[in-house]
Specification:
The protein is mainly alpha-helical. The chain has 2 domains: about 1-45, no CATH class; about 50-90, no CATH class. It has 4 helices and 2 strands. Helix 3 links the parallel strand 1 and strand 2. Keywords: Membrane, Transmembrane, Transmembrane helix.
Length: about 90
C-alpha cells in the first residue's frame, strides 16, 4: 500500500507542474471573477454621469416628490400635465 502513495504523489507532482494543469485550474476562477465584476465594469464604462430623465403621469404628488428627491439619479419633468404632453417631451430627450 505504501508504494501506491509513493506513485500517486510522484504522478501528482509531475501533473501539477504542467501548463495545462495551471490553465485548467486558473481559467475557471478568472472567468468567474469576470462574470462577478461584469456589472461594475459596464457601469464604469457605459454608465453616463447624467441623471435619467423621466416624466411622471400621476394625480398623486407623492410619486413626483419621492422621485424628485433623488436628484443624483433622476431628472423629473414636472411641467407636463397629461400623457400626450409627457410623451412628446420624453420623445425629445
Amino acid at each position: 500500500m505504501s508504494k501506491f502513495w509513493v506513485i500517486t504523489s510522484q504522478v501528482y507532482k509531475r501533473r501539477v507542474k504542467t501548463k495545462s494543469f495551471l490553465i485548467s485550474l486558473l481559467l475557471p476562477l478568472l472567468i468567474g471573477a469576470v462574470i462577478f465584476a461584469l456589472p461594475k465594469i459596464v457601469d464604469y464604462f457605459g454608465g453616463g454621469d447624467e441623471p435619467t430623465k423621466i416624466a411622471i403621469i400621476s394625480e398623486n404628488p407623492a410619486f413626483s416628490m419621492a422621485i424628485s428627491a433623488d436628484k443624483a439619479n433622476f431628472k423629473v419633468d414636472k411641467k407636463n400635465r397629461n400623457p400626450e404632453e409627457s410623451k412628446k417631451s420624453t420623445d425629445n430627450w
